[in-house]
Amino acid sequence: KQEVTQIPAALSVPEGENLVLNCSFTDSAIYNLQWFRQDPGKGLTSLLLIQSSQREQTSGRLNASLDKSSGRSTLYIAASQPGDSATYLCAVSGGFKTIFGAGTRLFVKA
Amino acid sequence: DARVTQTPRHKVTEMGQEVTMRCQPILGHNTVFWYRQTMMQGLELLAYFRNRAPLDDSGMPKDRFSAEMPDATLATLKIQPSEPRDSAVYFCASGAGQGLEAFFGQGTRLTVV
Fold first, then answer.
1. CB atoms B43 and A51 under 8 Å
2. Which residue of B has its CA nearest to A29?
3. Where are the beta strands (DSSP E) in B1-113?
4. Which residues in chain B are contacts of A98 at CB distance < 8 A?
5. pLDDT tens digits, A27-44
């Protein structure tokens, strides 16, 4: 049974810092890994999708890496801004199921 | 503007009442997911469909929950009878196929009193 763990559970940083969010999963037989952002009271917004054959994806200040063999992914946020404050969720897809981690709640202080 | 549409956005109901939540997946997407999000449990997969056929609903309490896709443009999640512990945000997501990106609706916030 796939289990997805995200560390840290919460993170508070000053504006401008570079930061790394971690996601680990127990079953490496995955199709893809997706990073989402969720603002309070809102739905989920897809940030980056990494297929199982890929090692990383980049979008603007975001970079996500995937190491299937070790069951890990990281989301790197460069030059963080207050607008980045949100909960970041990683989701692992295998077969037709997508399993989510509990998320990392990020607060970027101005 | 392709997006997943969920209705209603908010629902408050009394215990024992029937609740129906609706989802319109993105046109052309053949995979639909229902998730429930609570503070305690996070996001839990309740059911998913491919080409309108239910592939797995093992995450759903069978005695009171049911999920259907009457046609390719509509997915429904029904709770009968509802209980206070069903209070949560229910998300629908759709995708174009296995291994492809999933897109989420804004959710239905259900409160059962």
1. no
2. B99
3. 5-7, 10-13, 19-24, 31-38, 42-50, 53-56, 65-71, 74-79, 88-95, 102-104, 108-112
4. 33, 45, 93, 102
5. 988 989 999 999 988 889
